[in-house]
Amino acid sequence: MAKAFFRLQKFLRRTQFLLFFLTAAYLMAGSLLLLQRTRLVIQQGARGASANQVPERMPRAGMVEPRTLQNPRDSPRLLVGTDTLQEPALEQRYSPRWLVSRNSELRQLRRRWFHRFISDQEPVQTAGFKGMKHTAEHKGTYVGCFSDDSRERTLKGAVFYDLRKMTVSHCQEACAERAYSYAGLAYGAECYCGNKLPATAARAEECNSECKGEKGASCGGVNRLSVYSLEELRAAAGRRRNVIYRGCFRAPENLTDTFPASLIQPNLTVEMCSEFCSKKEFPLAVLRGQECYCGYRTGRFPLRAGAEGQRCADADSYCQVYQTPVQDTRCTDRKFLTTKSKVFVALSSFPGAGNTWARHLIEHATGYYTGSYYFDGALYNKGFKGEKDHWRSRRTICVKTHESGKTEIEMFDSAILLIRNPYKSLMAEFNRKYAGHLGYATDRTWKSKEWPEFVNSYASWWASHVLDWLKYGKRLLVIHYEELKQSLIPKLREMVEFLNMTVTEDRLLCVENNRDGNFKRSGAKQKDFEPFTQEMKDLINRYILTVDEALRGRNFTGLPREYVPR
């Protein structure tokens, strides 16, 4: 009995020791893991801070240090070490406080967005479908659920995307403003407009995607459209809609062959002709006497050589042309490349130089999406679907980048280098930084110390970006933003040919009809003060002269004369 008791006591002592040892080991392992994570965070913070410091070392005169940008919009590279260009002492001491590490910022942005995107993609269950709304809070009349074929889409008059805030009312109002009779929603975030109902009806429960911006509301489904009739909304929107007078033009020799639809009616008015063409989904309404014709801009009717308005009243060989609210849809369908591109092409620019606008033009001209080195959810929401695609997938026609430096440039086989007046670029990027893609920074922000710090940092980046691409780019096409605006079709044709694509003249004319896209600021907001001081102008003008000389040294056309200092 004593022996058995002794064995039990020995076993309990061993067990107690074992439990104590395991507890201690567990605590030590946890402490080591905590220390390791803390060290990693500190290292990442140090890297982010060091990436934003201005280098102390000065390269030899006339050369730009090939340092890689960590943040394309928020970490400017500096052009230093030239005899004529001296950076302000402010930058040599410290960087602007808003500069942060691009890698950590983009990782957080992508992680948050994709988490939200994946969670949003979960289809609404049929059990919850009964609670979805169709007409209770919407002015349009719900027609039903229809099948949607992306290759032969019926509602193709206009297309809108919003992966975060799409609502039924937003889609209805957007379509009604453009004189369409029907609005259809799909995938919870896509809006389509048109004047004809889809041919194939679907079961009501198949439209089971909840609107991204409206809980409980049905916004179609996978290849399914929730369709609404807009008759009441169209009547209200008709009072606000603008019909734009394009001018007086010589009529083509055979109007019936040139224009697909026509109407002959006594006492014909501009409103009657515009309404007729809008219902037919044509962007142009053409009047000659009591005759109304509907169609597009084409090679036979390009709308280039306008005539005096009096000729339209006196001669039958001239006609009046009006722009209807309907969108020209001949160039709006886009897709990814079916096979991987053999040539890796960059669309490179300094921030604020019109890269998004150039992407809009290229996508509509070629019919293929453009990619991006970064990810911008606002651009993706507005239809730039290449934003979500990996930038090295080679499924896009070209890739947006603001990067410079030898390594980043030599990754690409060729590049379109877009250059804009630095004064305009700096102001555009400052507006984007403090008010988004379409907003304007407040006067208070312009007059704060943020603006001079911004100019001191970013002006040199404008120059070094161009110089690096001229130095390391393998095959370049230089496009000046001002020339692209002034001569859209010739310059766009040049860009398309550089991308080894062929497009028709009619498609280019369609692009010109849709030239602004969704990211054009509404007019130039005039300021009652001059944002650039004389010191800023002296600095920027020296950079302009340096870039102009470098372009001519590479046998390119120099900068446009309107902003080269004399």
Automatic annotation (TrEMBL):
Pfam families xref list: Sulfotransfer_1, WSC
Domain WSC: 139-231, 242-331
Entry GO MF terms: sulfotransferase activity
InterPro entries reported for this sequence: P-loop_NTPase (IPR027417), Sialate-O-sulfotransferase (IPR051589), Sulfotransferase_dom (IPR000863), WSC_carb-bd (IPR002889)
Keywords noted in UniProt: Repeat
The keyword Kinase is annotated on this UniProt entry: no
PANTHER family membership: SIALATE:O-SULFOTRANSFERASE 1, WSCD FAMILY MEMBER CG9164
Family: Belongs to the WSCD family.
Protein known as: WSCD1 protein
Gene name of the record: Wscd1
